Amino acid sequence: MATAIRVNKIVREIEELDYSSQLNILSRVVNLLKKSDEKKIYNLTDLKGLGKEIWQNHNVDDYIAKERESWD
Known about the structure:
Oligomer: single chain
Shape: elongated
Distance between the termini: 55 Å
Structural class: mainly alpha
Number of strands: 0
Largest sheet: none
Radius of gyration: 23 Å
Order of helices and strands: HHH
């Protein structure tokens, strides 16, 4: 909740600035985000377990068998 309050305060302060200053801030934030994204290295092993809750109540072998039957 404190983060949301801080963000709202920052946005209000930006709204009080002139258009040129707002564009300057936008440009700087975009550059900051680009640098942040460039540093992040994605690893395929990070996906391990992703979506496992979807299959929690399903028998995967039965599902695969039904899918293969539909191919014929």
